[in-house]
């Protein structure tokens, strides 16, 4: 049976990656310290090991025998990364290096798939944004995700580790709203709107609501991880988005009901819009879940 380790597998996206791999018949171990994750999210057929990716002595034995490593563990929050850049650097950058060191020399490893972020494009100079667009980080979080990606590519080449980096755009879907982690990157706006709508409370729009987001469903992202692991060439970097944008005002219309405006936040981009032609051409991946279907999935 194919075996995989998913770091951050008790989190929002990681738990969907775990479920997807279990559905493929894979034997999955989750490595997560439950900083923002929840053990109850881990698929019952997967094994949860509570450990921090920053703990080198724990990571070696946990990752050394894996055939596939999906590295999603991170502190994925833009605003808190301004408040504690050092603490976030330790997890997002040093934790990634620890994971790479842990698989160094492994003869079993077939692929190390990193969860990177479209945050590295900042306010992009090219829309839709391709992987070759200018890097322009607006927050410690964005810079750390980009640094983690570059470490992955550089150490991957030096240590002969087959690595792939996936730059997720704004991921949403069931479980994106986590009461433990309510400011989770930008993606939580879909989950927050859903929660507010259920509670009969006004939808909070940051700024004037004209900012556009490329929302990609978490099940599409889970499938992209699987395809990257099984099909991508080592050293590849791919955008993972829907290729379509929705403004926050439009999103509020989808949900309906009253809205209230709150001040815009530092470090957040005006537009995220993925050009996904590279992953579509090279791996045959394309987004399959529309926003309308995705919003329905939130209630499942
Ligand atoms: N949500 C998005 O829209 C989005 C967009 C781009 C990239 N990403 C990336 O995707 C990944 C998953 O994000 P998410 O939205 O599911 O966040 P999440 O907070 O739900 O999941 C992160 C998981 O990592 C775990 N974790 C944190 N620190 C850890 C540590 N030191 N050791 C072990 N585990 C630790 C948490 O407990 C949690 O389960 C992150 O790498 C994030 O940067 C997310």
Descriptive account of the structure:
The chain is built from ten helices and 13 strands. The protein has two domains: 203 residues, Rossmann fold, CATH 3.40.50.720; 76 residues, UDP-galactose 4-epimerase, domain 1 (Alpha-Beta Complex), CATH 3.90.25. With 300 residues, it is of the alpha/beta class. Strand 1, helix 1 and strand 2 form a beta-alpha-beta unit. 52% of the residues are buried. The protein is globular, with a radius of gyration of 18 Å. It starts with a strand and ends with a helix. Nicotinamide-adenine-dinucleotide binds next to helix 1, helix 4, strand 5 and strand 7.
SSE layout and pairings?
Blueprint: E1 3-7, H1 12-23, E2 27-32, E3 47-50, H2 56-63, E4 68-71, H3 78-83, H4 85-103, E5 111-117, H5 140-159, E6 163-168, E7 170-172, H6 188-199, E8 203-206, E9 212-213, E10 215-217, H7 218-231, E11 236-240, E12 246-247, H8 248-255, E13 259-262, H9 277-283, H10 291-297
Oligomer: single chain
CATH architecture of the largest domain: 3-Layer(aba) Sandwich
* Element string (H = helix, E = strand): EHEEHEHHEHEEHEEEHEEHEHH
The general outline is globular
Q: Helical proportion?
A: 25-40%
Helix tally equals: 10
* CATH superfamily caption of the largest domain: NAD(P)-binding Rossmann-like Domain
Main sheet: strands, sense, barrel: 7 strands, parallel
Structural class: alpha/beta
Q: Percent of residues in beta strands? A: 15-25%
């Amino acid at each position: 049976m194919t075996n995989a380790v998913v770091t951050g597998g008790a989190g929002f996206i990681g738990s969907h990656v775990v479920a997807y791999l279990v559905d493929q018949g894979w034997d999955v171990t989750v490595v997560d310290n439950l900083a923002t994750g929840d053990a109850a999210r881990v698929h019952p057929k997967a094994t949860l090991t509570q450990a921090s990716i920053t703990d080198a002595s724990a990571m070696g034995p946990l990752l050394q025998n894996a055939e596939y490593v999906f590295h999603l563990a991170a502190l994925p929050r833009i605003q808190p990364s301004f408040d504690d850049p050092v603490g976030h650097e330790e997890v997002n950058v040093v934790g990634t290096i620890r994971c790479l060191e842990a698989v160094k020399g492994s003869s079993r490893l077939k692929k190390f798939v990193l969860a990177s972020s479209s945050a590295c494009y900042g306010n992009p100079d090219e829309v839709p944004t391709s992987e070759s667009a200018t890097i322009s980080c607006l927050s410690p979080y964005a810079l750390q995700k980009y640094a983690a990606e570059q470490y992955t590519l550089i150490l991957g080449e030096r240590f002969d580790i087959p690595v792939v980096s996936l730059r997720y755009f704004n991921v949403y879907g069931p479980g994106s709203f986590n009461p433990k982690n309510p400011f989770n990157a930008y993606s939580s706006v879909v989950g927050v709107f859903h929660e507010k709508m259920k509670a009969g409370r006004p939808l909070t729009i940051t700024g004037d609501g004209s900012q556009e987001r490329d929302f990609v469903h978490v099940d599409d992202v889970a499938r992209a991880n699987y395809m990257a692991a099984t099909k991508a060439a080592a050293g590849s970097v791919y955008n993972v988005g829907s290729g379509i944008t929705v403004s926050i005002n439009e999103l509020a219309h989808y949900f309906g009901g009253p809205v209230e405006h709150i001040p815009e936040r530092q470090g957040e981009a005006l537009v995220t819009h993925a050009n996904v032609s590279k992953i579509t051409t090279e791996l045959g991946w394309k987004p399959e879940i529309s926003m309308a279907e995705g919003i329905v999935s939130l209630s499942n």
